[in-house]
Amino acid sequence: MSVFFNEIGPDNPVKKGDAEALLEKHLGVELDPKESVDYYELLAAVHDCAEHLLSLPDYQPVSDQQRYPRENVHRPAEDSKVFGAAWAHKVLIRGAQDTGNGAARHLAGKSVCIKDCIAVAGVPQFYGSDAFDPWTPVTDATVVTRVLDAGADILGTATCEHFCNSTASFTSAQGTVENPHATGYSAGGSTSGGAALVAGKITDIAIGTDQGGSIRVPSALCGCVGMKPTYGLVPFTGITSGDAIDDHAGPLARSVLDVAKCLDALAGYDGIDDRSVGAGKHNSFGFAEALVSNSETAKPLSGIKVGILAEGFNQDIIHQDVRAVVRAAIEKFEELGATVEEVSVPEHLDGPAVPRTPRSLSHRVRGGSAPVDHGIFPATLPLYKNTVINGLYLADKFPGLYGRTVNIGRRIRDAYEKVFTGVDVLVLPTTPFVARRHGMRDSPRASFEPTIGMTTNTAVFNVTGHPAMSIPVGWAPATDDATLSLPVGMQIVGALGQDKKVLQVGHAWESSFDWVEKR
């Protein structure tokens, strides 16, 4: 359809001078008067194109609600809440009882909860906020369709933190999520509800998202396994996004084997998300099968080289108790046949600064006009307000910073990749300390304090895209109560595309040592 330089219809709202007004308003530049008529006609033609596109029917994946009907969608009543506000909505969607869709039933018999930033058709989505009315999707995210095809039952959506913008679990407008091991303490975030429900044995698996540690941090604090796959391995289609350069979706479970089974169900290009175009064919990975076959050997990690990332330990913010627990866990690798050596990636220390800048600038572009009431941000948005303020400032004062930051991220990625030529995986503490008491919402500073430094070892791998998994390896005392023991997570990181190796190392450790009895 060509509309360029056609006669401008009487209903076309574009007027002479509109092009000049746009340039002056947004760029502060002027048009050559000799070109004014041409740009007027071109702009009118573009308007006609836009009108034509809006007149066409939309084209989205259609959720199969005959095969997968949604039963009893509801907000949990007060007397049915678990771990505080862990559930956003309850619903029953029964998974496939056969292979009618041609999918392998990797998750037959498993129960799943879905983070409340992932589209589930017919189930209202809060996104952790009360700044606007909940949005009800009309189609399912790819990961939702795939877990149902794999035979899992979905039991509901799990609370996430406000705009997925916190690693605490008290910032969601839907309420505070409690740590299953200690009421009053953080479950981590932003996949807070999912981690609590899995660790608390309410569901077998949670599907979460991770843009700085939002799968791995709550997994570490709650004592479950959380996997951030290689960037693009799992399609992000149908998931509310922060910045496309660091979005990851992945599973949380109580065992590495269940994480592997879930990755088998989720991974592979879906024909929509261009981030996953090179991921490979769905149902082609064999993650769980590789773990089962490898576990039959006496020394399952024979030939594997484990690198202790020095910079992951040698930071003042890493608590001594956490450092000691993870060091003790690493020593066990040699019993499994692995060789262990210390390695250094100095660029790791630049990591905490890198993810914050793209995310702030992205929210300034995508979310700078977040819903407000009479010009004031809603009171429940202190962390998000900070992100928007930062983004506005950085865009104003440092206009070229986004591109520079992305380039620095590639440099850090390449530094890790160089180290991976000599070791198979890197190991380090997932979080610098165990779960802390919930913070307060009454001031921005009070909202931040419990989580300052929490992502010092996680967020960098969102920028570099490396597969990273947290597994529970023991217990350490709470920072404010030496009589209370809380879970400690060890992070296992692999080279790009080496998700199977990360799973192999984690599964071998988990299968040989009981972290729970160390309490």
State the domain count.
3
> Helix tally?
15
> Beta-sheet strand percentage?
15-25%
Classification by helices and strands: alpha/beta
Distance between the termini: 69 Å
CATH topology heading of the largest domain: Amidase signature (AS) enzymes
Amount of helix: 25-40%
If you had to describe this structure to a student in words, what would you say it looks like?
Helices cover 31% and strands 16% of the residues. It is α/β, with parallel strands linked by helices and 519 residues long. The chain has 3 domains: 1-56, no CATH class; 71-351 and 402-518, Amidase signature (AS) enzymes (Alpha-Beta Complex), CATH 3.90.1300.10; 353-401, no CATH class. The strands form 2 sheets. Strands 1-2-4-3-7-9-8-13-14-12-10-11 form a 12-stranded mixed β-sheet, with helices on both faces. The chain has a two-stranded antiparallel ribbon with strand order 5-6. The model is unreliable at 364-380 (pLDDT under 50). Residues 103-503 form the Amidase domain. GO terms for molecular function: catalytic activity.
